[in-house]
Amino acid sequence: MDELLRRSEKLTTVGQLAAGVAHEIRNPLTTLRGFLQLQLQTSKLNTRHVDLMLSELDRINLIVGEFLILAKPQATRFEVKDIRFTLGDVISLLDSQAHLCNVVFATDFGQEECRISCEENQLKQVFINVLKNAMEAMPQGGQITIQVHRQERQICISIADEGIGISEEKIAKLGDPFYTDKDAGTGLGIMVSQRIIQSHQGTFEIKSKVGEGTTVLITIPLYRADNSES
Ligand code: ADP
Ligand code: MG
Questions:
Q1: Cα(221)–Cα(143) distance, rounded to whole angstroms?
Q2: How far apart are CA 46 and CA 66, in angstroms?
Q3: Where mainly located (predicted)?
Q4: ipTM of the complex model
Q5: Which residues are paired to 151 by β-bridges?
Q6: 182 C-beta closer than 6 A to ligand 1
């Protein structure tokens, strides 16, 4: 029953999203069509136009990719993982990109085991989204501080940047699909991340001060082999 409810809720969201996705994809498609027609008329390749076409294609790809994470009827396989290793994997994945952007990662993972029951690839997706946002908020570079600790029955993950920050009125809009202020943004990252954390019975919170930086706070219940244990 629970599962049915969860699935139908997911379907509604996906249905609503699909309309948005169709709309978001139509714009770059129109651009692509226009430029292709131009190439045909002038019968010679304009590299600037080809560049634009490629970036529009990339955009479509990004939007569809993020949408698929939600829409895919995935047989979600929850496994018990120590979140510190999951985070560590994502950090190594992004390390070279961070280096290029003058961004350094500072981690404080503590000594305690931080085991949770999770769909690891989905959580990686969340960390990638949040860390990328943090990097993109610091065009001149800076430090991203990633902390993990246990608090009673929760694992708390904090990801803090020293970037441009987010105004209060903008914070209210975060999580709305397609809300973005980036040229190459999809405005899906936060929404997808929130949903994934929700499906892990966790919480996702953003705190920010303009000009000082942004902190994303995520909590996920600690895994307990014996759930009745108090
Ligand atoms: P995208 O990154 O594609 O724009 P997101 O859903 O990831 O979509 O983020 C939505 C918007 O939230 C961003 O365009 C940006 O304005 C704001 N935002 C998110 N994270 C941060 C951050 N760490 N610092 C400043 N702004 C942020
Ligand atoms: Mg993003």
A1: 28
A2: 31
A3: membrane
A4: 0.99
A5: 154
A6: yes
